[in-house]
Amino acid sequence: MASLTINAQPLDIRLPDDTPLLWALRDAANLTGTKYGCGTGECGACTVMVDGQAMPSCTLSLGEAEGRSVTTIEGLSPDRNHPVQQAFAAEQAIQCGFCTPGLVMAAAALLAHNADPAEADIAAALPHVCRCGVQPRLVRAVQRAGRILRGQEPPIRLPAPRTATTGGY
């Protein structure tokens, strides 16, 4: 059994220590925003923050995560108001959406340590494989989120998500 903090909540997970953190999050904690892509940590779809650092959850075992603090896309901002989420939507840096949670988490980790990253810093922090071709928009979104975090630009007001009860989907 591993004890860790997930999205600011202490949690004991009863799975073998060699279970990838990705599957512990998805199967035991029911946090399905973290996606499985390649299983080798190369694609970035499974990126979460572990003690504030962006890490691929498919290559980190539950035993290695023991006692650490993990933040998933669900814990970053449940109401979608994190500057990175706002900027990704405003800059249309989302195409199919599969790798978006991992990209958002990597960008949020970068901006937490460097709110004014150069384009090279962004490229190094977001080496994800996104087949949709949104890389230029990703760079603009991260730069915009940095300006919001630095107070150089006001927060973006996104419309409320559409639901079956509000006439959408």
UniProtKB/TrEMBL annotation:
Its EC number is 1.3.99.16. It holds the Pfam family Fer2. GO terms for molecular function: isoquinoline 1-oxidoreductase activity. The keyword Disulfide bond does not apply. InterPro entries: 2Fe-2S-bd, 2Fe-2S-bd_dom_sf, 2Fe-2S_ferredoxin-like_sf, 2Fe-2S_ferredoxin-type, 2Fe2S_fd_BS, Beta-grasp_dom_sf, Diverse_Oxidoreductases. This is Isoquinoline 1-oxidoreductase alpha subunit. The keyword Oxidoreductase applies. Keywords: 2Fe-2S, Iron, Iron-sulfur, Metal-binding, Oxidoreductase. Residues 1-76 form the 2Fe-2S ferredoxin-type domain. Gene3D superfamilies: 3.10.20.30, [2Fe-2S]-binding domain (1.10.150.120).
